[in-house]
Design a protein that fits this description.
Blueprint (H helix, E strand, L loop, with lengths): L1 E4 L30 E5 L4 H12 L3 E6 L3 H11 L4 E4 L5 H14 L5 E4 L14 H29 L2 E6 L3 H4 L5 H21 L4 E8 L5 H4 L3 H8 L10 H12 L10 E4 L6
The chain binds nicotinamide-adenine-dinucleotide.
Length: about 270
C-alpha cells in the first residue's frame, strides 16, 4: 500500500551525504538525480542508510518494508527527495508485484534495486526447527529472487539497471548457530553471480555487498559478551556502521562502477581476508 509522498527535494546536508549536485570534473561526483531506487527492508538499519545515501545523491527512493506503516513513512520523510513508503512483504508474490507497480506509477521505472530485507532465527543445527530454517530462507533468499524477477524484465528492456544484494560474510565463511542464515546468504551470492551472467548482455549490473559485524538492531540482540568476542576479530577495531555498507552500495549503484558485475564486495573491517 502506497501511503506517502514525502516533502520537498533537497540534497541532504550535515548528514551522511554532503555532495553538491554539480561538482567540477575531476571531483568525485555521484549524481543519481532522475534515477529511481527501490530499497527493501529500507525503514531502518542498513537499508535506511542505503536510502539516505541514494537520496543524498539525488535518487527518488521507494522504501519497501514489512514494518509498521508509521515507521516506513517516517523513514521516507527523513530521506526527502520525493521518497515514498510502501508496506510490502518480499516473500508475498502479490505484494511484490503491487509494490513494483506502485513505485513505477509514483516515481517511474526502477533503475536501482537494493535487496536488503533480511532476518535471523539463530540456533545450533540440532535444535533448529524447520520453521526457523524455512522462514530465513524465505525472506533472505526467496525474497531476493521475487524482487529481482519483478524488476528485471523492465531493466532488460531499457538495457540498463543496477541490482545490489545484501549478503553477509557468513555466506562465505559459515558461522556456528547460523546454518539457515549462512545458507541463505551463500544462496544470495550464487544468485547474484548467476543473474549477473544472465543480464550482462542487457546492460544490467548485479553485485552483492557482504557486510561483517554492523551495529544495527539485528546485532544489538546479541549478548554483550558475544559482541566483545566478535569485536576482537575485527582488524580495524570497531563495529561497522550502517553507512559503511551504504557507501559501497552507493558506489555499485552509480556510474563510478561501470565495469563490475557478479562481484561480492566485502565490508567487514578486515574480518575476512
Ligand atoms: N547487521 C549486521 O551485522 C549484518 C551483517 C551482514 C549482513 N546483514 C544484512 O543486512 C541486511 C539489513 O540488516 P540490518 O542489520 O539492517 O537488519 P534490521 O533488522 O535492522 O533491518 C531489516 C529490515 O528488513 C525488514 N524486513 C524483514 N523481513 C522483511 C520482509 N519479509 N519484507 C520486507 N521487509 C522485511 C525489517 O522490517 C527491517 O526494517 C539484512 O539482509 C542482513 O542479513 C546485516
Amino acid at each position: 500500500m502506497l501511503f506517502l509522498v514525502s516533502g520537498p527535494h533537497g540534497y541532504i546536508t550535515g548528514g551522511v551525504a554532503q555532495r553538491e549536485p554539480h561538482q567540477k570534473a575531476g571531483h568525485v561526483n555521484i549524481d543519481l538525480s532522475g534515477k529511481v531506487a527501490l530499497v527493501t527492508g529500507g525503514s531502518r538499519g542498513i537499508g535506511k542508510s542505503v536510502g539516505m545515501r541514494l537520496a543524498g545523491a539525488g535518487a527518488k527512493v521507494a522504501v519497501v518494508d514489512v514494518a509498521d506503516c508509521e515507521q516506513i513513512q517516517a523513514t521516507a520523510a527523513e530521506l526527502g527527495g520525493g521518497a515514498i513508503a510502501i508496506n510490502a512483504n518480499v516473500v508475498d508474490a502479490d505484494q511484490v508485484a503491487a509494490a513494483v507497480a506502485e513505485v513505477e506509477e509514483a516515481l517511474g521505472p526502477i533503475d536501482i534495486l537494493v535487496n536488503n530485507a533480511g532476518i535471523t532465527r539463530d540456533g545450533l543445527l540440532i535444535r533448529m526447527s524447520e520453521a526457523d530454517w524455512r522462514a530465513v530462507l524465505d525472506v533472505n533468499l526467496t525474497g531476493v529472487f521475487m524482487m529481482t524477477k519483478a524488476v528485471a524484465r523492465g531493466m532488460m528492456k531499457r538495457r540498463s539497471g543496477r541490482v545490489v544484494n545484501i549478503a553477509s560474510i557468513v555466506g562465505i565463511t559459515g558461522n556456528a548457530g547460523q546454518a539457515n542464515y549462512s545458507a541463505s546468504k551463500a544462496g544470495v551470492i550464487g544468485f547474484t553471480k548467476t543473474v549477473a551472467k544472465e543480464l550482462s548482455s542487457r546492460g544490467v549490473l548485479v553485485n552483492a555487498v557482504a557486510p561483517g559485524f554492523i551495529d544495527t538492531d539485528m546485532t544489538k540482540a546479541l549478548p554483550e559478551s558475544a559482541r566483545e568476542a566478535l569485536l576482537k576479530l575485527v582488524p580495524l577495531g570497531r563495529l561497522g556502521l550502517p553507512d559503511d555498507v551504504a557507501a559501497a552500495v552507493l558506489f555499485l549503484s552509480s556510474e563510478l562502477s561501470s565495469y563490475m558485475t557478479g562481484q561480492v564486495v566485502v565490508v567487514d573491517g578486515g574480518m575476512v581476508m
